[in-house]
Amino acid sequence: MSKRVLVKFSGEALAGKTGFGIESEILNYIALELKSLVDNGIEVGIVIGGGNFIRGVSASEGGLIRRTSGDYMGMLATVINGVAMQEALEHHGLDVRVQSALEIKEVCETYIYRRAVRHFEKGRVVIFVAGTGNPFFTTDTAATLRAVEIEAQMIIKATKVDGVYDKDPCKFEDAKMLGKISYDQALKDNIKVMDDTAIALAKDNALPIVVCNMFKAGNLLKIIQEEKDAIYSMVSN
Ligand code: GTP
């Protein structure tokens, strides 16, 4: 059986230094990293956040926009990122389908679990957009849900840091990177690799959560191929 993974990365990652929108160079870099997985026979599902355009929580902070509407706005932002990533991956010759939790059929397919699995079987990359389709759920939770549904072997949370540390590495020089953490420890110690809903869902379904640096070229592939010099932290049983 070929390996199937779900890669989740934040919308902010696409924005680069400006913190807003999509920077072509970064989009292209990430597309090439993902392509290397597909080229090695790995089935790839993708979830991208929407924070480079809007975050539901922040949008609602001033009280003008209600949280529910803010979250729907955030879900729409993930659609923009998903369509951009589809274009970038297709530019490099990959076969890609975007599936949305909200019905926007002029833009992309609607999420249908069985159809997503069929796409993987045909060697296509599937990008899941619009979160879970519900407010009050993060894209981390959406990514975990999709990973469980498609029976991914792991969910990879690709971030700007190498993994999970015992304390904030930006503030403490002696912060140590943790290799392996249990779900319970992650929840108990409030290690915010993902929100609690996502971690609990991963725990219930024994889905390993890998946290790694997306800007270390080649690292994603090394992790999945279980190479010794792969750099990451893992939350698992
Ligand atoms: P198979 O039939 O399994 O080979 O899959 P397929 O995805 O190639 O077939 P389909 O004819 O369903 O899709 C052809 C193209 O139309 C693909 O690029 C799909 O992403 C796209 N497509 C399919 N359904 C929808 C939809 O509801 N909305 C939009 N916007 N595009 C769709």
Automatic annotation (TrEMBL):
The organism of origin for this protein: Helicobacter valdiviensis
Where along this sequence does the record place binding of UMP? G50, D71, T132, G133, N134, P135, F136, F137, T138, T139
Protein residues bound to ATP? K8, F9, S10, G11, G51, R55, T159, Y165, D168
Name used for this protein in its record: Uridylate kinase
Q: Which family does it belong to?
A: Belongs to the UMP kinase family.
Protein function: Catalyzes the reversible phosphorylation of UMP to UDP.
Which domain of life, per UniProt?
Bacteria
Gene it is expressed from: pyrH
What are the record's GO terms for cellular component?
Answer: cytosol
UniProt subunit comment = Homohexamer.
Q: What is its EC number?
A: 2.7.4.22
Give residue ranges for domain Aspartate/glutamate/uridylate kinase. 3-213
Into which EC class is this enzyme placed? transferase
Query: Which stretches does the entry tag as region Involved in allosteric activation by GTP?
Result: 16-21
Q: Where in the cell is it found?
A: Cytoplasm
